[in-house]
Design goal:
Blueprint lengths: L7 E5 L13 E7 L13 H9 L3 E6 L8 H15 L1 H4 L1 E11 L1 H12 L6 E5 L29 E6 L8 H13 L3 E6 L27 H14 L13 H4 L8 H5 L2 H10 L6 H7 L4 H7 L6 H12 L5
Parallel strand pairs: 2-3, 2-4, 4-5, 5-6, 6-7
Antiparallel strand pairs: 1-3
Helix pairs in contact: 2-4, 9-12
């Protein structure tokens, strides 16, 4: 990206499937790891992306410029968002449902993208973020106070931090919250009593072997963020009823209606058993009663060919519905 070898956007994508037609285009999460603008934390990179992937989001990790003056990292973030939206169709991403999440210095970058960016994400998630310019004393480069840049284009935000964080004091998070409130930008915030700094998912696999990085209470931020994202960005639709219809509801018999009702009708039963003799077994017939003959056929070791299934469908359709 932008000719810098160390800047890299990694995509973690779920495969499309006809069985997941309601998720052909997914919301996405763009992850900015922390690292004080002097490095990038692996604990806050791929594990976070994979966690959101498991919740149905497409996920991306940006390894942005470090040890370089601001706004260089912001330019990287803008380009990453541009690339995701430009390639959204091929990557199965809804371009209007992209969230940016950042941790610590990465939280500053996510907040900068949401407040100062030429392009903006559709939601912000800020984990124990550096917000105030006073944090420049401990970061590798000077930073602007991004809470002062909040405007009407700033998207809804989700913030989480710990009261006992001495590396990025909770004042950073509170300052951003107050500025959001003043500008009328929707937000949700969770200030945990303990947790310190740099916990990532606060689980053993993101702890780096340090017990202090494992905190079950602080780990609740992730589930809370997922439910918030689904509220803000929208969830996957589930309006379609995929159950197999009964013959009375379909208004006819056929290979695409529930088997149970047809087996109870002698004429249908005879036609069905001619091709599916195994359904004469009462236990098997009971287990298959809510399925269609098409589904049962697909489950056979050697399915019947299409012409035989069409022939059976024709016979069943000719039988008058009672």
């Amino acid at each position: 990206m932008r000719g810098r070898a160390e800047v890299k956007l990694t995509a973690y994508l779920l495969d499309a499937s006809p069985e997941l037609s309601n998720a052909a285009l997914r919301p996405a999460v763009l992850v900015f790891p922390g690292g004080g603008y002097r490095g990038l934390s692996d604990r806050e990179a791929e594990p976070v992306a994979m966690a959101y992937l498991a919740e149905g989001f497409q996920a991306f990790v940006l390894r942005y410029s470090v040890r370089t003056e601001f706004p260089e990292p912001l330019l990287d973030a803008e380009e990453a968002l541009d690339v995701i939206r430009m390639r959204s169709a091929g990557w199965g991403v809804d371009p209007e449902r992209i969230a940016a999440i950042g941790f610590s210095a990465g939280g500053h970058l996510a907040a900068a993208l949401g407040t100062m960016g030429r392009v903006r994400p559709n939601a912000l998630l800020l984990g124990y973020p550096c917000i105030l310019s006073s944090m420049s004393e401990v970061l590798a480069v000077p930073i602007p106070s991004v809470h002062r840049e909040i405007d009407e284009r700033t998207p809804p935000a989700f913030l989480f931090a710990a009261c006992d964080d001495t590396a990025a004091p909770v004042e950073n998070t509170i300052s951003f919250m107050r500025a959001l409130d003043e500008k009328g930008i929707p937000f949700e915030a969770h200030i945990f009593q303990s947790g310190g700094h740099g916990l990532s998912l606060a689980k053993t696999h993101t702890s780096g072997g340090y017990r202090s990085n494992v905190n079950p209470r602080f780990a609740e931020w992730f589930a809370l963020s997922v439910s918030w994202l689904r509220e803000v960005l929208g969830d996957f639709s589930s309006d379609e009823d995929n159950s197999v219809p009964q013959a009375r509801d379909a208004g006819r018999y056929g290979i695409d209606v529930a088997i149970g009702g047809m087996l109870a009708r002698q004429e249908c039963r005879e036609a069905i058993l001619e091709l599916f003799p195994q359904l004469s077994d009462k236990k098997l017939a009971a287990r298959a009663s809510s399925y269609s003959l098409s589904i049962v056929n697909e489950a056979l070791p050697v399915p019947h060919p299409d012409d035989r299934m069409r022939e059976l469908d024709g016979k069943l359709r000719q039988i008058a519905l009672k």
